[in-house]
Amino acid sequence: MSMVNKAARFPIPLLLAGALTLGLATPAVATPPGIPSAATANSELASLTVAAEGSMTGYSREQFPHWTTVSGACNTRETVLKRDGTNVVTDSACAATSGRWYSPYDGATWSAASDVDIDHVVPLAEAWRSGAASWATSRRQSFANDLAGPQLIAVTDNVNQAKGDQDPAQWKPPLTSYWCTYAKMWVHTKYRWGLKVNSTEKTALQSMLGRC
């Protein structure tokens, strides 16, 4: 559960005692690789093709196979959980048994991996509508498991579920302070993978980058 919710349920002295037991360690902020500067993101956004979104015909999440094995018993989800968490302990099957995760979308901190989702910054369905429908399945698999760029990030599960497949014109992270970073990640992912943007999406991204 989040620290905010804990404060509502327990007296402050007890909450502080629990925090001291944890050593008051601040969880690492989830920071995927390859987040560009604002100037680079603006340049990349300007270069993207602007077009109406395509059809959802033929789409399913199975068109983007995930999570694939990364190393040993660890798949992509488990790899991102370890990357984005603090003091993450895993079992022999690479499942996270303990750790702490700070979700930059909403500022919540979690101590159970089950409370955390791995968000595709550019959702799979959004990618499908933006050009991925014409890709080979192998390319869609690479996109869905992309650890080299800022496409995967550990965040609060219900926040990720609220986002669904919406683009930044329709949904933005609850924390406005994260809008700049989110826009940079979104733009760079679309740029790296050659995906299109629609006009309202581009306008929203320009506004978000204006906060940087």
UniProtKB/TrEMBL annotation:
Residues of the signal sequence?
1-30
Checking InterPro entries in the record gives:
GmrSD_C
- The GmrSD restriction endonucleases C-terminal domain covers 100-205
Tell me if Signal is a UniProt keyword of this record.
Answer: yes
What Pfam families does the annotation carry? GmrSD_C
Keywords, ordered alphabetically: Signal
Asked if the record carries the keyword Signal, the reply is yes
Question: What is the protein name given in its UniProt record?
Answer: GmrSD restriction endonucleases C-terminal domain-containing protein
